[in-house]
Design brief:
Blueprint (H helix, E strand, L loop, with lengths): L2 H10 L1 H15 L7 H9 L11
């Protein structure tokens, strides 16, 4: 078996599982317990100090 075939077999099986697990973990990361305050700060930080053009 050539090196290419070995790498292709790895990419077709185990690497796909690792990429799916990583994708799932990254998608669930913002929903972990205790992340609400940090998420709220990240979502509203763009509006801090904004006077909306009122004078």
């Amino acid at each position: 078996m050539s090196f290419y075939e070995t790498l292709r077999h790895f990419a077709d099986s185990y690497a796909l599982i690792v990429m799916f697990a990583l994708f799932t973990l990254l998608c669930l990361y913002p929903f972990r317990p205790g992340a609400g305050e940090r998420n709220h700060h990240a979502a509203t930080s763009i509006f801090k100090g904004n006077d909306d053009g009122d004078q």
